[in-house]
From TrEMBL:
It catalyses: iodide(in) + chloride(out) = iodide(out) + chloride(in); sulfate(out) + 2 chloride(in) = sulfate(in) + 2 chloride(out); nitrate(in) + chloride(out) = nitrate(out) + chloride(in); oxalate(in) + sulfate(out) = oxalate(out) + sulfate(in). Keywords: Cell membrane, Glycoprotein, Membrane, Phosphoprotein, Transmembrane, Transmembrane helix, Transport. Residues 568-696 form the STAS domain. The lineage of its organism: Eukaryota, Metazoa, Chordata, Craniata, Vertebrata. It is found in: Apical cell membrane. One of its GO terms (cellular component) is apical plasma membrane. GO terms for molecular function: secondary active sulfate transmembrane transporter activity. Residues 1-29 are annotated as: Disordered. It is a multi-pass membrane protein. This is Sulfate transporter. Belongs to the SLC26A/SulP transporter (TC 2.A.53) family. SUPFAM superfamilies: SpoIIaa-like. Residues 1-17 have a biased composition (Basic and acidic residues). The chain crosses the membrane at residues 108-129, 149-172, 216-235, 241-265, 378-398, 419-441, 461-491, 512-540.
Length: 696
């Protein structure tokens, strides 16, 4: 038998069928169960008790190859029956399950009230966030309308509000501006300076037989990104790869949203001051934008600046009052709508655009535009951008839906939520809309105003429909500075995360570092790069935690069978000649050296002991008379040392989740090193994964 196979044999659990009670050389895979009375008697009785093997017969596993497994899965999933078809339809359209059971008397008042209030809040926010996405105001209203209707049909959460979300609007806007520049559009002109797109083809609007202007091309880009994001989300639902969202921890998402909020605030600064500046894109756009703002600050439009300050003085205190008295108010004060109406009237009758050249929203058409397929030529250019947008969208939607479902005692299906948010992007992309997801602020308003079911989304859609059909043109004179103030005021929640940092630091310093790294990279680099940096850094932190895990020696708590760390607790009992070592991490290639160094440091280092023995043996040989012929007796070298007090090391494997090949080789080395100096090694509390790895 080779030395390698012998080592594997030593590491394997052996079923003793011959009644052999002697301890074999090697690592014994057995549970050392000694009661506290054994430890109380160790002073008088130092004899090691015999360990009885626990014989467990494994379940027989059927030998099915991969081909048979795939065939069985296909047969199971592809079989069709009336019951299965019914379940599939009901699963895909949750409305068919809950609407027939709708309790009209119990739920209708809360649903109507919450739907009305959210609809009133969405009108100014939809118009404001359209600027952030680089679109005309009417497209924001379209987006909120279609998202409310589709989620009502497909969603499983009763409380979340699906619509425009500031961070996604920012990401859409960055993509739109980049494609506008590539197509040759100038910020000062509505027509392309070259009349050509990046692929060299003339952009013709076939419905009106004219060249597509800047706003037309912007919504084409936005719709194409939205379509691809929806396709990705539905594909993730089909292939059940929602596990991607687990890499977006709460600290990472919070840091990303806060960092993106700084970028949003920066992008709206030019509207607050009434400056006509190009939108900066790419790495370092936040710093570049502020440089442009300060270089052109002498061109500030005083009318827009005064309007911005007045709106801030009204919006901020009222928003704070809404939050402070939300338990006493039946509904929050719709201060945003009040400000929009008042500002529109002041701008119209004061003729601020004509007299002071104030920037206004412009004409907002009524009704709906004819549906149009996304521009397929743009798909290759925006496909990569849509990946980050889709992941952020479904991660926020799923996390919010699960959070509110847990709070109110019902369940949601994460896979169906991915379908719902995916189709909330695919279908509206044919109707001149951009990307949507759940939004925390509006969801909190919806919940606090008595929402009971998804029916409130229909009421919200009816409010938006009324605006689209009748009221929209009345916002012609609304100043863009007012919309920018509304956007900035709604960033308060994300910017307030700084107040939670001391608490987060006390709970988990690693999460706080992840938050800071993601926030800074999202703000200073770009949103997409910031998200990637955050994910990579978060995974690196997980690896770092297992690379240098905690380890300790254990002692027995008096009058119990509980073992705790001797460095953390006092008055723990230990048995002479035995040390129990705990390693709190999986044992694999990254931390194998850390495992060995910690074990050798806290027990005895067998390598140093062997070196010391050899040196002592050499010194003893020099002092004694050399044997005839000068031949050194090997046995005299090995026996020329005093026996060690330590004779057994028990490795507590309860916190070792798994082993890889490097971990198994490390255990072999440890066993060999300690065996060479007469110390046996025992493994205790091995979980099934560790036992299987050692057996194989």
């Amino acid at each position: 038998m080779s030395s390698e196979s012998k080592e594997q044999h030593d590491l394997s659990p052996r079923d003793s069928t011959e009644g052999n009670d002697s301890s074999p050389s090697g690592i014994h895979l057995e549970l050392q169960r000694e009661s506290s009375t054994d430890f109380k008697q160790f002073e008088t009785n130092d004899q090691c008790r015999p360990y009885h093997r626990i014989l467990i017969e494994c379940q027989e596993k059927s030998d099915t190859n991969f081909k048979e497994f795939v065939i069985k899965k296909l047969q199971k999933n592809c079989q069709c029956s009336p019951a299965k078809a019914k379940n599939m339809i009901l699963g895909f359209l949750p409305i068919l399950q809950w609407l027939p059971k709708y309790d009209l008397k119990k739920n209708i008042l809360g649903d109507v009230m919450s739907g009305l209030i959210v609809g009133i809040l969405l009108v100014p926010q939809s118009i404001a966030y359209s600027l952030l996405a680089g679109q005309e105001p009417v497209y924001g209203l379209y987006t909120s309308f279609f998202a409310s209707i589709i989620y009502f049909l497909l969603g499983t959460s009763r409380h979340i509000s699906v619509g425009i979300f500031g961070v996604l609007c920012l990401m859409i806007g960055e993509t739109v501006d980049r494609e506008l520049q590539k197509a040759g559009y100038d910020n000062a002109h509505s027509a392309p300076s070259l009349g050509m797109v990046s692929n060299g083809s003339m952009l013709l609007n076939h419905t009106s037989e004219r060249i597509c202007d800047k706003s037309c091309y912007a919504i084409m880009v936005g719709s194409s990104v939205t379509f691809m994001a929806g396709v990705y989300q539905v594909a993730m639902g089909l292939f059940q790869v929602g596990f991607v969202s687990v890499y977006l921890s709460d600290a990472l998402l919070s840091g990303f949203v806060t960092g993106a909020s700084f970028t949003i605030l920066t992008s709206q600064a030019k509207y607050l001051l009434g400056l006509n500046l190009p939108r900066s894109n790419g790495v370092g756009s936040l710093i570049t934008t502020w440089i442009h703002v300060f270089r052109n600050i002498h061109k500030t439009n005083l009318c827009d600046l005064i309007t911005s300050l007045l709106c801030l003085l009204v919006l901020l205190p009222t928003k704070e009052l809404n939050e402070h008295f939300k338990s006493k108010l039946k509904a929050p004060i719709p201060i945003e709508l009040v400000v929009v109406v008042a500002a529109t009237l002041a701008s119209h009758f004061g003729k601020l655009h004509e007299n002071y050249n104030s920037s206004i929203a412009g004409h907002i058409p009524t009704g709906f535009m004819p549906p149009k397929v996304p521009e397929w030529n743009l798909i290759p250019s925006v496909a990569v951008d849509a990946i980050a947008i889709s992941i952020i969208g479904f991660a926020i939607t799923v996390s919010l839906s699960e959070m509110f479902a847990k709070k109110h005692g019902y369940t949601v299906r994460a896979n169906q939520e991915m379908y719902a948010i995916g189709f909330c992007n695919i279908i509206p992309s044919f109707f001149h809309c951009f990307t949507t997801s759940a939004a925390l602020a509006k969801t909190l308003v919806k919940e606090s105003t008595g929402c009971q079911t998804q029916l409130s989304g229909v009421v919200t859609a009816l409010v938006l429909l009324l605006v689209l059909l009748v009221i929209a043109p009345l916002f012609y004179s609304l100043q863009k500075s007012v919309l920018a103030v509304i956007t900035i005021v709604n960033l308060r929640g994300a910017l307030r995360k700084f107040r939670d940092l001391p608490k987060m630091w006390n709970i988990s310093r690693m999460d706080t570092v992840i938050w800071f790294v993601t926030m800074l990279s999202s703000a200073l680099l770009s949103t997409e790069i910031g998200l990637l940096v955050g994910v990579c850094f978060s995974m690196f932190c997980v690896i770092l935690r297992t690379q240098k895990p905690k380890s300790s020696l254990l002692g027995l708590v008096e009058e119990s069978e509980v073992f705790e760390s001797v460095s953390a607790y006092k008055n723990l009992q230990t048995k002479p000649g035995i040390k129990i070592f705990r390693f709190v991490a999986p044992l694999y290639y990254i931390n194998k050296e850390c495992f060995k160094s910690a074990l050798y440091k806290q027990t005895v280092n067998p390598i140093l002991i062997k070196v010391a023995w050899k040196k002592a043996a050499k010194r003893k040989i020099k002092e004694e008379v050399v044997t005839p012929g000068g031949i050194q007796d090997e046995m005299s070298v090995q026996l020329s040392h005093d026996p060690l007090e330590l004779h057994t090391i028990v490795i507590d494997c309860s916190a070792i989740q798994f082993l890889d090949t490097a971990g198994i080789h490390t255990l072999k080395e440890v066993r060999r090193d300690y065996e060479a100096i007469g110390i046996q090694v025992l493994l205790a509390q091995c979980n099934p994964s560790v036992r299987d790895s050692l057996t194989k």
